[in-house]
Design brief:
The chain contains 14 helices and eleven strands. The strands form two sheets. Strands 3, 4, 5, 6, 7, 8, 9, 10 and 11 form a nine-stranded mixed beta sheet that branches. A hairpin with a 6-residue loop joins β1 and β2.
Amino acid sequence: MMRLEWLEDILAVAETGSFSGAADRRLLTQSAFSRRIRQIEDYVGVELFDRTHKPIRLRPTTEAQREQILMLNSALRQLVVDLRRGERITSNRVVIACQHALTATRVPALVQQMPTTRDGIYVRLRSANLDECVGMLLSRQADVAIVYQLPDERNEVGADFLEELMIGTDRLIPVSNAPLPKAPALTEHNGEIPCITYPPDVFLGRVMERKILPFFNPGLRHVPKVETALTLAAVEMAAIGMGVAWVPESLAHDRLTAGTLVDLSEVLPSCDMQVMAMRVQGKPNLAEGIFWSRLQAV
């Protein structure tokens, strides 16, 4: 099998025009370098150099492959670098699975606090819904999961071997691009509230069913207009007037401040949520341990 060092030997002769000059460049004695050149030619089965010419040059058939030799040499060098870097990344990497809304709000600030320069910590974020985040954690595809949880609920899946840490709070609030009409106008429209909804099998869909819809004012009716599993999409659709969306307050904060969204929680139900970090109990790698320590400091 052709070796990286052999490719570099061939290129050294081509660039210096002599075996002695190539030997110096390759930090070998001339005799040791000559033996290696013979070994290369024995392996290939042909002479690679025109020794009758001064300076020594590649034979025409070798010269025709010079660009390929250069590309192979570069690719193999990069492969070595990537493999070494990959080993460092594996030992110093923390994989964080987080719900979509948290990926856009809470997690970037947490990642920013990681000492990536000093300790070579590498962070990989994986955004998914709640069930997928827990699944990645339990299958060891993620080291830490950061998810929403209702205050009166606890994760029952793997509770015996999962370590949990509350790192913040949030609220699921109703938002729209304009205030709701006053009571007479709502009555004229049969109290219908056009809404952006979530699929029933995702976390916020279950929250809507348990904590929002049962607490609607009897004079108002929740009328689904659009369904999406992505809270970011729900925010955008609320902003262009497609309906009322229930989204994490942290996700809507900038638009509420700018006035492009209105908080309707004085009229429509809302609910509190906790931001939880979870990991499987056991001995963590360097990166996971450092990240968890930062979470505990929060």
